Amino acid sequence: MHTRRVAGDELLGRLPQPTGALSWVRDGTGLVGWGEAARFEVSGPDRFAAADRWWREFTDDLDVDDELGVPGTGPVAFVSMAFSDRPGHSVLVVPEVVLGRRNGHAWLTTIGDSGKRRVEPVRKPSEVRYSDGQVSVTGYRAAVRAAVERMRAGELDKVVLAHDLLAVADIGIDHRFVLEGLARRYPECWVYAVDGLIGATPELLLRRSGSVVDSRVLAGTTWPHDGMSDDELAAALMSSGKNRDEHEYAVASLVQTLRPFCDTMSVEGPSVLRLPNVSHLSSDVIGTLGDTLGGTPSLLALGEALHPTAAVGGTPRADAIAVIEELEGMDRGRYSGPVGWIDGNGDGELGIALRCAQVDGRTARLFAGCGLVAESDPDSEVHEAHAKMLPFREALEGM
Ligand SMILES: C=C(O[C@H]1C=CC=C(C(=O)O)[C@@H]1O)C(=O)O
Where would I find the Chorismate-utilising enzyme C-terminal domain in this sequence (predicted)? Predict the structure, then answer.
């Protein structure tokens, strides 16, 4: 395989075909890929360790010629892990071609001879129809109410429940059309696509660059309502006890789990992250990895320890997972699992797969969830989940 410097500043615009897009792009930087040189699929509680092992063996056997030698050059796999230990299907895809841009560098990595692909024009659907997914809005409201009762009874502190929505377009969905729409409206988010899971997430589970790791923790949300200005919404969010509690659980779970791997750690926040559809309480955690057992853990090993954070699971983690299995009533698939990329040195970026849909032909299954605490109100959570589905809906409809 070869990595060469290239000129040009396009990423998503270079994807040649309507399906099979691979993407991890934020505000014009990141990686896109196409073609499949290799694929690894796995499920079950050992999925992270199995994926890590497969990736190490795959890269050990490669003959790499890399002109740049920075994170994201050389061998790269796009990663999307299932939320749940069961059921669930996780996937690593090694593209035939990767195009990357970061810190003033631009590069092209190819595996094998990876012949040129025909470039097909991007297609826009003219009609999209929506219907209930596995969990309707009514079912979701009832599940939220039941979870809130459990928390009021002191059974757990926080749980994240989600529901889904089906969208059917009049033509096969062009992944590039959705990705371009998401990137245009959500430059603060990581716009991703792996094996048909497409979205724009504002939440970074973990980035590893050598011994430095960082994470963006989000929890606590508001959305435009009651004619309030953006500043009024932000001030209300910062002073909401319910949202501050929800956020604190998410930061604490991340810090506690990452601390044993780190020599130093610091937390900045919370502040308000403003997006077009919602605003979140946001904290950044930065750490320096220490040597454990003679080396620093890979990104996938760290992802295994961190997933699921309280932003998608809850607190205490095991109780929250049990409540999700009992009350949510659907298979999340890869929604709310780690998604991103890894390179041959164990570096890379894993976001949390939020604000997304699983796309298959003309159909997209959209997901959104909300963190619940004892003070949560079921109707508000239904509105919040609706607001969280807007990015994908608007991108699909071309708004
Ligand atoms: C579970 C989701 O969002 C999480 C991330 C940020 C804020 C959240 C909240 O305030 O509820 C959720 O924990 C989702 O978008 O589906």
Answer: 139-388
Closest ligand 1 atom to the C-alpha of 370? 11
Question: 2-397 in CATH: which number?
Answer: 3.60.120.10
Q: What is the pTM of this model?
A: 0.96
Query: How far is ligand 1, taken at its centre, from the CA of residue 114, in Å?
Result: 39
Three-state helix/strand/coil letters over the chain: CEEEECCCCCCHHHCCCCCCCEEEEECCEEEEEECCCEEEEECCCCHHHHHHHHHHHHHHCCCCEECCCCCCCCCEEEEECCCCCCCCCEEEEECCEEEEEECCEEEEEECCCCCCCCCCCCCCCCCEEEEECCCCHHHHHHHHHHHHHHHHCCCCCEEEEEEEEEEEECCCCCHHHHHHHHHHHCCCCEEEEECCEEEEECCEEEEEECCEEEEEEEEEEECCCCCCCHHHHHHHHHCCHHHHHHHHHHHHHHHHHHHHHEEEEEEEEEEEEECCCCEEEEEEEEEEECCECCECCCHHHHHHHHCCCCCCCEECHHHHHHHHHHHCCCCCCCCCCEEEEEECCCCEEEEECCCEEEEECCEEEEEEEEEECCCCCHHHHHHHHHHHHHHHHHHHHCC
Tell me the catalytic residues. Answer: 158, 203
Give the model's confidence band at 293: pLDDT under 50 very low, under 70 low, under 90 confident, else very high: low
Q: Which atom number of ligand 1 is nearest to the Cα of residue 355? A: 15
